[in-house]
Amino acid sequence: MKIFECKDLPIKVFGLMNFYKNGSLMRLPEEMMEKMPQLRQFGSRSTGGRIGFRTNTKNLYVKLVSKTFIRDSFVPQTASSGLDVYIGERTEGKFLGTVFPTGLRGTNPNESEKNFELHGEMTDITIFMPKNEQIENVYIGIDDDADIEAPTPYENEKPVIFYGSSITEGGCAGRVGNAYNATLSRWLNMDYINFGFSGSAKGEPEMAEFIASVPMSIFVMDYDYNAPDALHLQKTHEPFYQIIREKNPTLPIIMLSNPNYRIKKEDSEARLAIIRTTYENALKNGDKNVYLISGENFYDENDPYSCTMDNVHPNDIGMQRMAREIRKTLEPVFREVVEAEKI
Description:
Blueprint: E1 2-5, E2 12-14, H1 17-22, H2 30-35, H3 40-43, E3 50-55, E4 59-66, H4 77-80, E5 83-87, E6 94-99, E7 111-117, E8 123-128, E9 135-142, E10 148-149, E11 160-164, H5 166-169, H6 180-188, E12 192-196, H7 205-212, E13 218-222, H8 230-247, E14 253-256, H9 265-284, E15 290-293, H10 316-342
Parallel strand pairs: 11-12, 11-13, 13-14, 14-15
Antiparallel strand pairs: 1-9, 2-3, 3-8, 3-10, 4-7, 4-9, 5-6, 5-8
Helix pairs in contact: 6-10, 7-8, 8-9
């Protein structure tokens, strides 16, 4: 069997800014973590990162080596520490399985591996990296007589950036491929960067300045739940939007409110009103590329409690419903961006 590191060409890593600069599997550059030390734990993670390649192997071996091993109170180990492996064209990809530490006695929690049997025809493999771990390396093994090629490109040249809370980060999907942004990525063949930081994305101007400097095709602003209260959201939401807009005058900006409108209605209504004010002020000022998605429409009104793990974080059902609702707005905007990039 031939063994490759995820850093070896023609394999490609998506969604991790630091990888493009220095080969590190982290999503924030070192200078940002120095400027905002509260983000070091989260910025060092590989959340939202994906490994892509094409192969005609009949036997696929995947090994994950992590620097950390995180036990999360509400996130299953499959999502906290696991790789999700998909086969086929991204919009029709089939889930093969998760590579994650089992926790069995005598096993190393920082290493996990799995073998998969494939059909032997040239096809795409896409691997989603864990929510909570800092990754040392991912190893890929294929048959000695098999080939490996660069992955099929994503539809968009510049990634969609999602900025927000632990929900944006993927909590509490049962596995990383079920996070709402990962699901949208598969449905639309969309490259993205996940800047969801659990409890630590609070609309800071430093982060807005940083995000505004990153080449992107669409910006999704989803930090509602990280604002400690409605007053904090009111003080930060519109200034955050304005910083992004000033440096990106034509960028599509999609604003989300939190998904628990039907569970915590009074607080969610207050937060939604603030986000709506930012949106309406943008329209009044002539912004024709701003969009609002209300969390009111994410969960089923008959049983919203089945959509969460803890009345805050969506489970797999909640993530799926979020993805479906967001898609209604995101997809037509995304298609316009893709067509514009081709010109």
